[in-house]
Amino acid sequence: MSSQAFTRRYFFYGALLAGAVPVGGFGSVPSLARLGYKSPNEKLNIAAIGAGGRGADDIRGCMSENIVALADPDARNAAATFKQFEKASKYSDFRRMFDKEHRNIDAVIVATPDHTHACACLWAMQLGKHVYCEKPLTRTVYEARKLTEAAERYKVATQMGNQGYSNEGARLAAEIIWSGEIGEVREVHAWTNRPIWPQGFDKIPPPEPVPDTLDWDVWLGPAQYRPYTSGGEAYAKQQYGFYLPFNWRGFFDFGSGALGDMACHILGAVNMALLLTAPTSVEVLEQDGKNPISFPKSSKTRFEFPARRNMPPVTLYWYDARRDAPMRPEGLPEDEILIGPGLERLVGQPAGRGGAATAPTAQPAPGRGQQRMPAQNNGAVFIGTKGILTTDTYGASVRLLPSSRMEGYRLPPQLLTRSPGHYRDWIRACKGGEPACSNFSVAGPFTEWIVLGCVALHFEGKLEWDAARMRVTNIKEANQYIKPKFRKGWGI
Hints:
Layout: H1 3-9, E1 45-49, H2 54-61, E2 66-71, H3 75-84, E3 89-91, H4 94-101, E4 107-110, H5 117-126, E5 130-134, H6 141-154, E6 158-161, H7 168-178, E7 185-191, H8 216-220, H9 257-266, H10 268-273, E8 281-288, E9 298-305, E10 314-319, E11 379-384, E12 388-391, E13 399-401, H11 422-430, H12 440-456, E14 463-466, E15 471-472
Parallel strand pairs: 1-2, 1-4, 2-3, 4-5, 5-6, 7-10
Antiparallel strand pairs: 7-11, 8-9, 8-14, 9-10, 11-12, 12-13, 14-15
Helix pairs in contact: 5-6, 6-12, 9-12
């Protein structure tokens, strides 16, 4: 590619250097090196808030460092991790852990239910600790804004746990779209098979005594008090219980539904490639099982984004509770799969970027070949004026459609740095390296518009959004869901 052609095809790339995905890193903080950061060869002392479930996975991802303290109000769910790290200090209340252990802690993993993320992260940052927080960053727009501001104020290394942002595929998708391969993208469709937990109900089972292994008050954290219940006989055979250890995701007061659980993954490549800012509006077009307590059984939501830099306005459709793709671009052959192996196979080949290596063609449809069709229950489709691009659950499996376009395709020049691995990305930043790919300057604004979709579930019609003022301008009642009510002792 000539320098003139390169300049023409990537004419807006220079603007990215001051934005969400600069060439030297993935955040707006130019450098984290300062007094107090450890050398790359010195191990961090890491504490974890939430040691069971996803927290256990995050802790394992950081085992190259010292795990020195663990906090979890659900001792039963955390038992295996507590046993694995016998030398680590144990607490049910992370506030007590901060009181007693803060001088011995460099960094904190937050893997609690969504409603506790903000206070745990903020208090850690106020103590000067680096923070890794599970997705979504927060349950509400206000909390996401506050964590974005706090990370900048306290100059600590941060990362949200949306692993797809660290994938080769997400960067590859961005570079292909920026090259102009599929033209202007004005429409995106994304979907998930979540929820895989109960939603769409409006009754709470009778109260029960709190188990000895659970600190219910701490588990509730900033949420308004309610009696404990296991759900009774209806949930007795379920390993996930009524509220905990897992089904909290389906409750408005604790979780963020399918959007919060999976949009941070599935829409990661979309957010990165399309340089998404705050939407101008969001509207729930369909929902089954609307109620005041839990998220619906299924929903379809439309986000409208304004023009960004040199990109046109784009409309994004989100679908949940899907077993397959909710739409099919016009003109594709019936046996053409949307989600499956794609252009990542070219990465690292001798004739890679700019070379003449040949990408894989479409896989045969069921009944027409030996290979089984990949799952189509999570993914995203970019509709361009010149073509179509698709990605999978974590922003990988980048495909051009129709798949004949991948035959002999040449990857565009590499513009973005690659991640050394999601947890290593954060650990490197903690030790003075470049910002992690999904640090809070990226993850905060991303989370804001995702959880705005959760607000829209409470209302009929379009919510007009003023991001600067952090207000819904046309339906005043919606603003009660932008900022949560914090229980005494848990405010941020």
